[in-house]
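Query structure, 667 tokens:
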């Protein structure tokens, strides 16, 4: 690895003014830049102009520059320039690097600069955001990732760079003047893509930096509930409806050049879903709704970090030989599969724990882990607490289908002017104005009707599906929202399909539809309307009680369980968060005002990204006292405000278990 250095010094000019001088010895990473132009973009126009300090990168991408303090720029042209002098033609690739860290030019440095400019944040904040989005450490963004010893980091950074460079090439190919270069590159390099509850999982905390337990306390138990990992669409709905709309636009001659590509990409997208999970051990039935390879890794890695975080606990469990790791799921396919992949992660990292697992057959607990869809005819209530959960579940389903105030709120959100404006921007990039106008006048209607067949490349598996006509597009907003749904799920399929949906959904418009999605999920699954009480989350009570009961068993000297691992859905995790009133994630909205980002801190990407999870680590001292640390998406978190008095004196993250029980009125 080449050591990269940059220094900023202050030199006195003849006029007596101090000028910042940038001296840079750097390297271009992630793309071949031999003989390509690197400059200090002193006028910040995205071009290496006459008079700006510039040079040509070496065969290995190295360069040296000195000049006024300015961001660095790399221009890659179809033919390498003969000298550092600027060329007139628009380059095929432009990469940027902030002057605060100019030693590396890469797609990732370009992303940092894009975040700085589009969000108005400083270098440190932008760097942290890019790193968090990619699931790496900030320092990893400044390294030659192809030489990283961490396979996960290497794979993630290389994939993001490859995808991003392709987007930049497409963006620059479509611009009409050099004045558009900065905007085009920033749009292609942005990481704030607004996937909300479809966001791929990234741990929000580093276990190595967590607060250590007080002296004398050792880990004795842990438990979690986790959403399934990243998945494809649950069924053939919006994808087929959008494809039918595209076919009509094609017949009308109503497609733009970008729109022409949407149809072929949709066919690739649907084929990937038809075959999703084919040939993958642990997936029993290929097709829609399955976890992607991204989702499988999310749970394997989640397991690995849990084992590393509590090493002494697992060593003790292996030595004792009698304690059990209980694995439970909702019984639904992707939750069952997630349990399997998590267990696989345990077996790989610590084979000594295999005998402690109750797998391969995980327990199925619908009342604790699938409470949002209980059925009175098939879900028996012959155990304590179940009758109440069934009643709460039925009340919740009635609320979703019949509550007039809920329906009015959702309708009002959908008709907001900003939603209609964003829809038009999205659609006009794909369809000609006449077609968009007709959609806006409700002159067209499309559903997920029709039958499609796809076969695996080896010909050994064929799937035929027919749409149920229940997904409809009846307006421009419906059309754009359906495209957003496809866009949001696409990153999870990156190993199954080489289709990038980012060009179809600009970040600014994605933010608008993300807000709409969050609003809908807030009202339907989240804290909801204050005047409706606990209708959206009362049914999570049995699950919350089970968390307390597991720790109570340890308090009473019952150490049979070393851990309990539960695998479920967003509709499980979100209500539990609301019920426990976790800080910043559970505030309800009064009927007098609509949910908005300005007025409510609830965010889908925070509360329930893919594989979102809640974990309780339990520690005990020699006197038998138990303390609990709450982790939410692997970040140290707080229970409800009223429980602050239960925090262990002198700590930030540990709660006295008996005080916690009293706070939640547990006997």
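Result returned for the query:
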């Amino acid at each position: 690895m080449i050591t990269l250095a940059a220094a900023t010094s202050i030199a006195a000019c003849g006029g007596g003014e101090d000028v910042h001088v940038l001296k840079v010895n750097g390297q271009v990473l992630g793309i071949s830049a031999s003989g390509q132009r690197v400059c200090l973009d002193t006028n910040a126009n995205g071009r290496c102009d006459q008079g700006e300090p510039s040079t040509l990168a070496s065969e290995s991408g190295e360069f040296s520059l000195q000049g006024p303090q300015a961001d660095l720029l790399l221009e890659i042209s179809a033919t390498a320039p003969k000298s550092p002098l600027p060329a007139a033609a628009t380059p095929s690739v432009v990469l940027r690097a902030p002057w605060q860290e100019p030693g590396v030019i890469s797609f990732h440095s370009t992303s940092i600069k894009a975040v700085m400019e589009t969000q108005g944040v400083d270098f440190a904040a932008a760097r942290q955001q890019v790193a968090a989005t990619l699931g790496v450490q900030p320092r990893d963004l400044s390294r030659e990732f192809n030489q990283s010893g961490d396979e996960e980091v290497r794979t993630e950074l290389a994939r993001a760079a490859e995808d991003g460079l392709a987007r930049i090439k497409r963006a620059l190919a479509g611009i009409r003047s050099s004045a558009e270069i900065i905007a085009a590159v920033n749009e292609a390099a942005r990481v704030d893509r607004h996937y909300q509850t479809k966001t791929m999982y990234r741990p929000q905390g580093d276990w190595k930096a967590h607060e250590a337990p007080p002296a004398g306390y050792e880990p004795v138990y842990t438990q979690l509930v986790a959403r399934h990992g990243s998945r494809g669409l649950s069924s053939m709905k919006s994808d087929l409806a959008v494809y039918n709309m595209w076919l009509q636009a094609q017949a009308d001659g109503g497609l733009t050049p970008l729109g022409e590509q949407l149809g072929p990409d949709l066919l690739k997208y649907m084929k990937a879903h038809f075959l999703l999970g084919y040939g993958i051990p642990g997936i029993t039935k290929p097709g829609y709704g399955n976890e992607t390879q991204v989702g499988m890794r999310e749970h394997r890695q989640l397991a690995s970090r849990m084992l590393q975080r509590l090493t002494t606990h697992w060593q003790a469990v292996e030595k004792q030989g009698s304690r059990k790791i209980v694995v439970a799921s909702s019984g639904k396919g992707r939750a069952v599969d997630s349990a399997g992949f998590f267990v696989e992660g345990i077996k790989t990292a610590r084979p000594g724990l295999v005998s402690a697992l109750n797998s391969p057959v995980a327990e199925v607990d619908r009342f604790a882990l699938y409470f949002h869809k209980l059925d009175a005819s098939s879900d028996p209530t012959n155990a304590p607490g179940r009758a109440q959960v069934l009643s709460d579940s039925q009340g919740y389903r009635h609320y979703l289908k019949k509550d007039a105030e809920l329906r009015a709120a959702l309708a009002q959100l959908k008709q907001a002017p900003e939603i209609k404006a964003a829809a038009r921007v999205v659609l006009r990039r794909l369809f000609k104005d006449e077609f968009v106008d007709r959609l806006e006048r409700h002159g067209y209607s499309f559903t997920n009707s029709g039958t499609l067949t796809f076969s695996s490349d080896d010909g050994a598996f064929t799937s035929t599906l027919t749409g149920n006509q229940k997904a409809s597009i009846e307006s421009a907003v419906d059309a754009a929202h359906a495209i957003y749904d496809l866009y949001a799920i696409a990153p999870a399929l990156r190993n199954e399909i080489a289709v990038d949906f980012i060009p179809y959904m600009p970040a600014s418009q994605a933010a608008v539809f993300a807000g709409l999605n969050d609003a809908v999920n807030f009202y339907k699954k989240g804290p909801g309307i204050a005047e409706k009480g606990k209708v959206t989350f009362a049914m999570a009570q049995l699950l919350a009680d089970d968390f307390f009961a597991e720790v109570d068993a340890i308090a009473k000297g019952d150490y049979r369980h070393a851990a309990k691992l539960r695998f479920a859905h967003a509709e499980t995790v979100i209500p539990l968060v609301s019920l426990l009133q976790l800080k910043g994630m559970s505030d309800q909205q009064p009927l007098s005002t609509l949910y908005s980002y300005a007025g409510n801190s609830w965010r889908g990407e925070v509360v329930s990204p893919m594989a979102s999870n809640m974990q309780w680590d339990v520690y005990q001292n020699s006197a038998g006292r138990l303390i609990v640390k709450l982790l939410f998406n692997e970040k140290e978190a707080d229970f409800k405000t009223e429980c602050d008095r239960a925090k262990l004196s002198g700590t930030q993250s540990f709660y006295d278990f008996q005080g916690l029980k009293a706070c939640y009125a547990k006997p």
